[in-house]
Amino acid sequence: TGPVRRYPRTEPNRQVMGEFGHVYKEQYAVALFNSVRFEIEGGGGPQSQLLHRKNPLEDHSIFSGGLFQYLEGNKKWRNRFVFVADTYDVSFYENKVAHERGLHPKGTINCAGYKALTSMEEYLDLVSTSLPGVKAKVGSGPFVKGATQFPLILWHPYARHHYFCVLTEKEQTKWHAVLQDCVRHSNNGLSEECRVQTPAFTDAVRLHRQAQGHYGTWDMMCGGPPQILANLVMETLYPELRNLIGPRLKGKIKQRQRNWMLISEAVYKQVLSQTQAQYEALVQACEVETPRLDAALRTDMDQIITSKEHVSGKIRALVLPRAEQLLRRSVQPYVSSILEALMEPTSRGFSEVRDVFFRELVEVSKNTLNGGGKDKLGEHMEKISMLAFHPVKMQSCYEKVEQLSLEGLQQRFDVSSPSVFVQRAQILMREQMDNAVYTFEQLLHQSLEEKDQRGENLCKTIQCCQDRVLKKYDYDSSTVRKKFFREALLQIIIPYMLKQLAPSCHPDLPPFQELIFEDFSRFILVENMFEEVVLQSVTKDIMMAVKEAAVQKRHNLYRDSMILTNSDPDLHLLGESPSVDWAAQFGGGDEESDESPEGCGRSKWRRRQVVSMIKLDGMGPLPYESSTPMEPEPNSPDNVQEIRYLINPVVEMVVPASEEDLAVLTNGTEPGMLTLEGEEEEVTLITTVVEEVHRKSLQWKSAPQEVSKSITPYSLSTVSSGPTKGINQVYICLFSPLFKMREI
Predict the structure, then answer these.
(1) Residue from 604, 605, 574, 608 nearest 588 by CA
(2) Measured between alpha carbons, how far is residue 717 from residues 49, 577, 722 in Å?
(3) How far apart are CA 254 and CA 134, in angstroms?
(4) In this predicted structure, which of 181-195, 525-539, 672-686 has the lowest mean pLDDT?
(5) How many Cβ atoms from other residues are within 10 Å of residue 365's Cβ?
(6) Among residues 110, 256, 159, 263, which one has the least CA distance to residue 636?
(7) Confidence of residue 489 (pLDDT cuts 50, 70, 90)
(8) Residue 257: predicted pLDDT
(9) Helix (H, G, I), strand (E, B), or coil: what is residue 681?
């Protein structure tokens, strides 16, 4: 086959991380300056009316239950116990007993960057885009034969794909909602509480991509910083590898796709391990300098602000006329259309959150009125407590906003897809639901502690708390949505304007850096001020558009001039209270639970489950389920030699031969076409090995074919060294009824 090129696996990663690291250090100092300035000057938006709890999933898991998982090692389906913890990682075990004993899971999936699919056709469409010019037939399945009509597939553009299935449509719907929630939560991996690291990281990623010519939103801004950086590396590396290796993959369509997935997974796994270590080192290096930078900022804050305003004024004089011209010509005509596309589905989603919350409380009141009393109240409140994290009950809310479409605007403003905005809206909806539930819990618990209430009085108390919370929810929902609309408009418009203005403005920016004192140059960057000027040019139009939309009653938005007076001045004190343990105080608590494997020194510690399990009677093995002990999962290739094998497969054949055939086979066999399994395959190299074995010897008896039946030394069998279709190298072994083996 000729020499195989050794691709410099660490070079692209080192280059991308080197460029990113330089930008990150610059943005870290800027983010620290902004954080200290905000701390000194104060500020902020309207105060939230609802309470917010810090750790809502404490002592809870999300879901667990049985799934059938496809094992690529033996191409069988096996029944697995799947457990989704409060981290939203999906862990699968041999069975439930293994989980309860605290054994290590067979595998764990971090769902960041994945898509949860329920259709093999949709999966094939995504797989067919991995290799250009290769498209599998619909219904054929790329090396996976569905065991039931209800598949569940986790697809990732770079990492390993995971295949599951269930027996009923009800199970599929429930599991799909759970997996979608895992993806949604895992994608939201950047903590908003990190006031320096997170802004520095997001700005560094954005500026790095802009330097490569990639403006606009990015679908793979998913997970924590190491995962996002791995995606950043793969954005450049993946096309290069595909163009280099793709044409050299041999075999049928399914096999080429499978081999490419293994290669992609191996590269991604290696890149991820490197970005993890490199990012940790980068953050540590910045944190070492933080005390010195912080001291300098607090000492010279006034001078730094004055210097920044001076330089910013000069940049504004240069950039603002061009930005305003671009704004009038290419942006203003589309602002109302973009806003309308965002507002309709988002407002429906938040309205559905309110309705779901209201329906759950009505159910509590009805059950209480029917004689349930406090004991029944505790049981219902235990379930409502985790309503925001119940993916099945929240699914109707999420589906409303999934209708968001920017069709006709995506190409103009370089928006890859609306998924970035959909998932952000869904996260905000979940937060508002949990805030409403937590506030209701605290108000109700406070009322029940003040006086003993039963029957109609208890229902009136529930109704009173409900009305107070819904009023607060309407106000907070309006505030959160208006902020979301403003941020979404900026995310769509600003990259477009920067892309249009960069060619004419960037050449004129370097001289402005000379106007900044050297001591302040780490905190004041010309590139950042240029973007701030562009931001200021469009902010007024965006604020006005959202303000006008608030006047339209159909969106259920409060006007900016309306400020809800705090009718509960002492309510914020309840926000410091822990979540109410309704099961312990008022009875109930029939939910599924399982012992914590760690114990933490608390023998009666229980982990309550948010979503109840589906219990199926007589859940037996599938027709395709393996009855043998589980074989290990196939590992992706970890080195160049293994990747080389996927590109240049080797097949071994055992061929019958007589004494007269030896001369022909050992001297006259040349590369060419070889017929295997009824199809002709191209052979580029042939190595012939003659092995002389007596038919009654132990070596002959140990052949796998002899286990099932006795054959003569002249019978034909084929031994493949891998699931290979394309042939690049062939080993031919000749057996004759002698004892010695010699290599030609």
Answers:
(1) 608
(2) 77, 74, 15
(3) 9
(4) 672-686
(5) 18
(6) 263
(7) very high
(8) 86
(9) strand
How many other β-carbons are positioned within 10 Å of the β-carbon of residue 699? Answer: 12
Note every long-range contact of 444-453, with CB atoms under 8 Å and residues 24 or more positions apart, other chains counting.
444/381, 445/580, 446/574, 448/374
Determine which helix (DSSP H) or strand (DSSP E) holds 334, and give its type and residue range: helix 332-367
Lowest mean pLDDT among 347-361, 408-422, 464-478, 723-737: 723-737
Average pLDDT for 29-55:
88
- Whose CA is closest to 153, among 70, 74, 72? 70
Residues pairing with 82 in the sheet: 65, 92
What are the structure tokens assigned to 29, written together?
């100092």
Alpha helices in 145-252 (DSSP H): 169-187, 197-211, 225-245
Angle at 94 between CA 89 and CA 99, to 5 degrees: 60
pTM as predicted: 0.80
| DSSP per position, 519-560 | GGTTT--HHHHHHHHHHHHHHHHHHHHHHHHHH-GGG----T
SS3 at position 613: coil
With contact defined as beta carbons under 8 Å apart, do 734 and 664 qualify? no
Q: How many residues does the chain have?
A: 744
Position 696 pLDDT exceeds 60? no
Rounded to 10 degrees, what is the CA torsion of 677, 680, 684, 687? 40
The residues, ordered by sequence, that sit 6+ positions from 5 with a Cβ below 8 Å of its Cβ are 244
Q: Which of 515, 516, 513 is nearest to 527 (CA)?
A: 513
Q: Could you give the CA distance from residue 462 to residue 448 in angstroms, rounded to a whole number?
A: 10
Using the structure block, give the residue that is written with the tokens 């009023």. Answer: 471
| Type and span of the H or E element at 440 | helix 419-450
Per DSSP, the three-state class of 318 is helix
Residue 35 has pLDDT above 70, yes or no: yes
Which among 281, 244, 271 has a CA at the least distance from the CA of 11? 271
Tokens 């989980």 appear where?
99
- The residues with which 686 forms a beta bridge, in sequence order, are 730
Pairing of strands 741-743, 685-692: antiparallel
Angle between helical axes of 526-551 and 253-326 (0-180°, round to 10): 80
- Report the alpha-carbon distance of residue 136 to residue 328 in Å, rounded: 48
- Three-class DSSP category at 84: strand
Signed CA dihedral, 292, 295, 300, 306: sign only:
positive
Give pLDDT, residue 13.
82
The whole-angstrom separation of Cα 616 and Cα 233 is 45
183's tokens: 């993806």
Q: What is the mean pLDDT of the chain?
A: 80
Cβ neighbours for 448, distance < 8 A, ≥ 6 positions apart: 374, 461
Name the more confident of 348 and 677.
348
